[in-house]
Design goal:
Distance between the termini: 36 Å
Strand content: 15-25%
Shape: globular
Number of strands: 13
Order of helices and strands: EEHEHHEEHEHEEEHEEEE
Length: 289
């Protein structure tokens, strides 16, 4: 069965120096975005979308053969228009998902590279008491969000609605994962097998290094802290590839061996289709300073 991750998250991004007065430079009007009820206040935008230096392709002109030969094993790509997930999207709206699943228990993970700590709560408790915008003072190992570890029996009715992208890797299978996170959160740099990440609501910024490059970061510092403290100081040759993706777009970025991180800019639901590698490895390898 394919592996997917649905992440409801509030994504924020930075480019060099950010102040709230820079809101006029934001390339989207938050009032015009269908956020599914996962609203992001402008006051919680600590950073903004940056440039996109990853190739963007329309699914209508991208065949399975070209996907394999050009991207799957060598570089990331943003794919637009691969599937129509409106039914799934509607069920991920805040009112709909709380009506159906509020009493279901979910497992939260700490927002650091290794994600060692786990906490079990109900979805209602998480949305009411835990789901908050990230602050610059809070460390990743002190931040908890819903990032997978799903009970697929309880969530089957929702996951079954998701339509995966039409691309695949030979001799590999996948699995689904579902989650929800707050504005400014994100996963620090980590490694795992190849996969897709689709945004259902909101916007999400990805950072990716080539396999031969090792990013310098502290595994307990958040992506937000890395953006403010480390990213502006990077030489152009040391910067990762990056792109912010929006509703209905998919990032194929987990080609084997590359370090990647993510950052949530506005209220965002994303579905991730993650393939294990050909050795059956689906865990995370990590590195840091």
């Amino acid at each position: 069965m394919p592996v997917y991750f649905v992440l409801v998250s509030l994504l924020t991004f930075l480019s060099v120096e950010i102040t709230l007065s820079s809101l006029q430079n934001l390339d989207v009007d938050l009032d015009l975005i269908d956020d599914g009820g996962w609203e992001t206040s402008a006051s919680n935008l600590l950073a903004f979308p940056g440039p996109c230096d990853i190739e963007v392709r329309n699914a209508a002109s991208l065949s399975q053969q070209e996907f394999l030969s050009r991207y799957a094993y060598s570089k990331p790509v943003v794919i637009r228009g691969a599937t129509d997930n409106k039914v799934f999207q509607d069920q991920c709206r805040k009112d709909a998902i709380l009506k159906e699943y509020s009493s279901k228990r979910i497992r939260l993970s700490s927002a650091n590279t290794h994600s060692y700590e786990k906490v079990d709560v109900t979805l209602d408790y998480y949305v009411t008491h835990v789901l908050k915008p990230q602050t610059l003072s809070k460390l990743g190992n002190e931040t908890f969000y819903w990032f997978g570890d799903n009970n697929f029996t309880e969530w089957k009715s929702l996951i079954d609605l998701y339509k995966p992208p039409p691309y695949f890797l030979p001799k590999m299978t996948g699995a689904y994962s579902f989650g929800l996170a707050g504005a400014g959160t994100g996963v620090p740099f980590h490694f795992h097998g190849p996969g897709f990440g689709e945004v259902v609501f909101g916007r999400k910024r990805w950072f990716m290094y080539a396999p031969e490059k090792t990013p310098h970061f502290h595994p307990n510092r958040t992506t937000l802290q890395w953006l403010y403290e480390d990213y502006p100081e990077l030489h152009s040759s040391d910067r990762p590839l990056e792109c912010t993706i929006g509703q209905g777009e998919e990032m194929e970025n987990y080609y084997i061996g590359n370090a990647h991180a993510s950052f949530l800019f506005t209220s965002c639901t994303s579905a991730i289709h993650c393939y294990p590698d050909d050795r059956g490895y689906t865990g995370s390898k990590t590195t840091g300073t």
